[in-house]
Amino acid sequence: MMRSAIALAALLACGAAHAQSDAALFVRGAFNGWGTADALAPKGKGIYQADIAVAPGNHAFKLGSSDWAAEWVIDPDKSVNVAPDTAYQLERLSGPETFLFVRTSGTYRFTLDASDPAKPALKVTRLPDADRANAPDPHAGHAAVATQAWATWDGKTETVRYSTPDAQALLRQYVQSSTMSLRDPGPQHVAYAEQEGLPRARTGNLAFDALFALAGAEMRLNSVSQIKDGNYNGGNAIDCDCFSTGEKWAYVWTRDLSYAADLGLALLDPQRVRNSLDFKLSGWRAGVTPVTQIPATADGLQIVQDTGSGGSWPVSTDRLTWAFAAEETLRTLPAAERAAFASKALKALSNTLEIDRVAAFDTATGLYTGEESFLDWRDQTYAAWMPGDLASMASSKALSTNVVIFQALKLAAQLAREQRDAARAERYTRWASALKRAINKELWLADEGMYSSLTAGHLDGAPLHKFDWLGQALAIVSGVADDRQTASILARYPHGPMGAPVIWPQQIGAPVYHNRAIWPFVTAYGLRAAVQGKNAAVADAAYATLMRGAAVNLSNMENLEWLSGQPLLLDEKTPALSGPVINSRRQLWSVGGYLGMVIDNVFGVTVQDDGIALRPFVTAKLRRETFGATNEIALHDLRLHGKRIDVVLRLPPAAGGDGYHRVERILLNGKQVGDTLRTGDLQAENRIEIVLGKLVAGAQGIRRVQANPYEESSVTFGPREPVIAALTRASSGAVGLTIGANGNAAGVIYRVYRDGKLVADKLPAGAWTDDKAGVASCYAAEARFADSGNVSHHSQPRCIDAVAGAGVDIGVTDPRVTSNLTTTAPDARFSLPAIRDWGRPQDRFAVDGMRVESAGDYRVQVRYHNGANQVNLGISGGVKWLALKNGAGKVVAQGVIQLPHAPLFKGATPTVYSTPLAARLQAGSYRLEMTDFYNMSYLESNRTFTGAGGAEPANRFDIHGVRLLRVK
């Protein structure tokens, strides 16, 4: 056995230049949260095995070391679906995931045969199923039992049973069982109990009380003393009295924590939320000297953007979701602790806001650039070409991310006022007001009655006819949307039979995850928006989604397929489209969303800066169907600032029709009060009675859609984005382009955009001529289903200056290029010469004599390749400062450019272009200088990251040249 372990260590060492001393190799995949629970154990003679319980699904997995320094894949260039009992030769390279298709739950043996070190092989075998017959009834002997029947998408039902041995107990114990085929292997029932120190519901509906207790129990399961992730600290545990993210996600992630805390957790455990928020702050590493362009405090304390697209920030800029949690925590922390946290929060918020203003603010539109918040799987919510050109994603502007920054600006302004910093408060108030105007100007689509989720990237910039429920809901609850816009959004965003999908329309050819999915935490924000807009129909849909999801799955799941509500839609015809591709029980923000639904929306208790608001939203449907057996429901033992609160809702008789029940009066300890109470109004023990009365119609607008979840129908999907197959300029000045259908069939029409503006509509695929073209323009096309009106993403833009050869294009061998690093010749991977591994703080790069022949608007880009990590991982996206100087040495344009991770293939690796520096130039000669900025690897919190940027900051890439495009 020892010799086998030594042999594996040798294989790992020769297979990865950065292999650590840890010799273990793990099977890491969607079935185990990509963690290190399943090590390949030595069995002798070069054989290693791991037996893993796997649920139905098309599961992505890899063989990898604990720190991902070593990976073994079947094909470094493409994904492979493994057939059981078949041996596949492995290569010791990084690459795409391997897939295992499983029809029914079972235990699978993963065998690595490394007996021939030159030809290691993998084989997966299903082991015989254990006999589960004659299992005892988990509800046997319980005094109170309730049953629910939940309809399925195909006309059947799933049955859920709840029971408790003592319905009169102060803290009940529950058992819950379901007939639903669960996502993960295990029993069809779960046992849990109400928790000391957490509120409990008594509503006369055992199921409702139980599901609230389930959320509280899962919150406690996510309350940990240690966290871990394979990418940090060598996969070893990190001490932190924090909230972990879920059963399969054992770390603290900024956005997950922040949305969960805002939805409900900050009220119930503010100290643990604060600990978690502190964990997501970091200053500079020792030895890092911030560049002069960053207006931050000396220690650089700021919010951490987690690993992700293209190497993290500023491709992704939603780290300011931290403000959502911070605001709720400031409201719920004891007064003695609030002041210290408020001071730290303002410092972190201010540093982050000031830095992001430099690195990610577009002065032309007044919006911030960056990926959509939480929708961070590029091939799920962006154009198919985008993973190969992440600079275009980095330069796009997202609704959700801009609303997040708007909220952060408001909180920073408030904290600055509290701390008597009037100048800073005025600055952030002004920025917030301007950002709100910009969101409404640039992203509101009047023809759709909703906000665009995002714009196209540079060289295009048009708002896309793409929509997401989180962004719409956040725009409503933040106050970005006015009453008219709120009503329109709530009535127009589509809902399937199981609830609202997180994006609309769905993406053809992509499996279920963000695409084709319900995420309960997003539904919880949709519920908040519906309550704010008094839309009972949308609120009822959200209530049903949240309750059904927790009921049939025995847990608050990460996500669900949106048309069927299943935790896994198994598509045997097209296995690659099955999903959700990963799904965790007790996902933190789903737990927070469920707790908030009960406390905030049903019972109406919302914490404010100095007290609570009491605004329950009990719809006629909720009264009839959920609370029909009683005239009074209660929430007991809610705690705020050391005070206990019982909330009792007195219900009117159940009525037919739709709407919500208006609040008639509120009593605090027997005395009538208004709907807002100051903390000082509360005693040590408090009984709040809220009497509901007349049914108010409210708004009832809701858009319903229905389709077969196994079909890519034009009813629910958008077409594929087209391509501009050719672009030419005639001697007359007219521009001709050819629209390629890219696989779209009949029934699709096309639009053309010039410089982000619509210039042609209802075109067939093929040739089109622009007789009104300018001197220099960039074009993009989009497709639209003629029947449903659903629209694609835009094509990759093409510019006349690039195809006509009129632009300035300078390779690194050009004598005008100077650098402190030497240029290397092309090799087997790169067809162009390169300045390799450029980007250390002391590195310099310049281009002299860049000649501009005529005045106009230009874009400067660096041609590069960044292979520091995969396109979906890491903290090593290139982030640099670019300055353009005229012949007199005066800076005429400067700013941050991004050089994100780019695809790395086994064969030839294509070069890509950075985000552009915009410049209005006169004719003349210019000098370009590129110097250091910073990325997330410069932060102390990432010192233990196991990939590039962990051992030392990594902000490096290969430079192949620069180009200067005229766009106007």
Automatic annotation (TrEMBL):
Signal sequence extent? 1-19
Task: Tell me the superkingdom of the source.
Answer: Bacteria
**One of the protein's GO biological processes:** carbohydrate metabolic process
SUPFAM superfamilies, alphabetically? Six-hairpin glycosidases
> What range(s) does the Alpha-L-rhamnosidase six-hairpin glycosidase domain occupy?
373-455
Q: What is this protein's record name?
A: Alpha-L-rhamnosidase six-hairpin glycosidase domain-containing protein
* Keywords on record: Signal
